What does this fold into?
Amino acid sequence: MSSHREEFINAIELHQSAFGLELASDVVARLADHFDLVTEHNPLLHLTGPSTPDEFAIRHVLESLTMLEFLPRGVKFADIGSGAGFPAIPCLIARDDLRGVLIESKEKKAVFLQSAISKCELNGRAEVITKQFAETPRPDVSHVSCRALDRFTQHLPKLIKWSGRSTLLFFGGPALRDEMQRLGINIEERLMPLSEQRYLFISRQGRSF
It folds into this structure.
């Protein structure tokens, strides 16, 4: 086992309780497979910013898994601007009842996502669409997630319209909250554990909390 992989696994096991998680060892191993794949391809594809294995485990993986609380059993969700596969791939690894559509417009990153789906044993439960979200009809999904879309706030009105009555699960900071409120979107927010300004914003479209 490489030292970086070992550090990543140790970080997941150390910090998961702060996120209300208790992940099985086989799930942690598959999350580490995804970490290895991102680390291998990151110098060429720029999938994530520079981070230590500990930072990667917390910010990218454990924060992604906070979305699980808001995904009922058996649902299918669309993940917009998936990039390295966050938040979709960790959630699909952790819950084998979920299905996901990963929408990534950059072809090289979409190819990476296909290889990650295979490596992490997600074939049959995940598919990749290589288009801008606005250029493809919304799949038959009940939830729409987004974590790192380029110019997120600029695309927000179009993304909300595209999502229809789907529940929105958007990761971001105060600027995203302000824009969602400006657009009149009713939101619930969850501050990420071990963070002071990163949130998951939840909006159940067409419903009151």
Q: What stands out?
A: The first helix runs from residue 3 to 15.
